[in-house]
Each structure stands twice: as structure tokens, then as C-alpha cells.
Design a protein that fits this description.
alpha/beta, 39% helix, two-stranded antiparallel sheet, 9 helices, 303 residues, D-Maltodextrin-Binding Protein, domain 2, Arc Repressor Mutant, subunit A, single chain, nine-stranded mixed beta sheet
Length: 303
Amino acid sequence: MEFRQLECFIAVAEELHFGRAAERLCMTQPPLSRQIQLLEQDLGVTLFERNSRQVLLSAAGRRFLRDARHLLEFSARAAATARRTSGGEAGHITLGFTAVAAYRLMPSMVMQARKLLGGVEIQLRETVSTDLSRLLLARELDAILARSVPQQAGIDSRLVEREPLVLALPAASPLCEHATVPLRLLQGQPFVLYSPREGKYFYDRIVGAFGLADVQPDFVQRAGQTHTLLALVRAGLGVGIVPDSARELRFEGVEFRPIGQRNLYADMYLAWHAQHDNPALDAFLQRVMKVDGPGCFRAGGRE
């Protein structure tokens, strides 16, 4: 059974006249009759009841007409979907990210993708940074948002966000009186620090900044995640340094202040396999992330 035979059958079934159906299909009547005969032979049923005056659908023909229409509609949709998938306008992307990316950057990226690539489904997978690299290398993820990327051949990456680190303080802290807090004022201050294991990226950045400034806070507690650190700050255990996007968590009783220290920031990278066979990922990289253009992607789609 061929799609052309279905088209011929539907035309005759709707016109109930071989001559008009042949004209509609831009063909002569003998080839049309032959297509119907071949279809009936293939199905093993009689689709039309014919006599010298009229053509009528048989009971089998009436039932088959509905299915034939559905088959042609489905094939047309399948062909359109295949073309859209090949062009990156449909398909599937699995994006891995860390919790901190969910505060501001990742939602903005997903919104941009929905606007520009409405036919592409983005599956989100949240995990810790160390697992992100492993899952990307294993090709279980199409792309990742991470603070650091695997230094391995075949992995492409781009800096997509650079955000400042800010000081998080209990609302009752005297340091809230300052519009900007220099690191030297944190000398001896009770301080909640990221864990060197779960929060290694921030731990290294913050401890390194204190070392360069020759400042030694009183490290009273460590936390693996930003929301845990802010909860400890709110409880009054001490102050902490977090990415600026942590403001989006809106912890009541926690104030944020810029830090009077240059080059104290956190980077976020998008990484993916240079060699892949996912047109949807190509479209995402080019149209949403604009990897062929200059500058960094910013929350809200700004360059």
C-alpha cells in the first residue's frame, strides 16, 4: 500500500466519480482505476460498488476512508516534524545545571528558548558541579551550565555570565550601615563559608580573596549550598559571601552589600560536545546563546 494509492482512493471516495477524481489529481482515468484496483488487491476487500450509473463506497470503503485520511494527515505531520527537527526547530535538549544557576540565569535562558524555539523541548536536570562534567562527558547531557568545564578535547564552552560576589549579612549587623563593605572590615568577623568539597568553586574564590587582602575572618560554620548559607546568616551565625543572584531567594532578615574588592566575581560557563548530531542543540546555541556573536549572554537575553 502506497501513499499515492491512498490519495487516489480519497479523491474517488469524495468525488464518487472517477472522471472528476482523475481531473482533481491531474491524471487520466485509466491509471487512477489501476491504482484503486491495486489498493483493493492489497487490502483484499472491495472499496467501491460500481455500476454503469454511479460509484458508491462499500461498508469497508467507508471505514477505510477515515483511516486513510488519518494516515495521510499523520504522514504530513511526520514529514513536517522531520523537516523542523532537521532545521533545529523541533527536537529535544537535555540541559544540566547547578542550583545557583536556577536563581536567575537558567530561567531566563529557558524563557528565551521558548520564545525562539517553541518546538524544542528542554529537559532540565539539576545536580552538583562534579556530576555535571561527568554526565556531559558520558553524553547523558547535551549541555551544562557550570562554574568550571571539563578540560578535555572535544568539549566546547562559552562564558555566559560573570556576576559579582556580594556580602550577605543579618539585618541587625552593624555592617549594614555601609553602602559598600571593604574586605578589611571582615577581619575577625564571624563568617559562614562554603564547604571546600560541595562548594569548592566559591570556597577557593573567597579564601583566595581573603588571602590576597591579608584578612582573616572567624570561620564559624561551613555550608555546601547557597540557600543553606543564607539560612545560617539569617540565624545570626555570621556574615557570608554569595553570588549576587542569591538575592533572588529573597531571604527575609538578610541584607546584601557590594564588596569593596575588585575582581571578586563568579563565572558561569555553558559547555557542550563540539561533535554532536542534535540540530536542536545547534539552534539553541546559535539563536538563544548566540555563540557566533561577541559578548556574553546575560539574564533577560541582553548582550
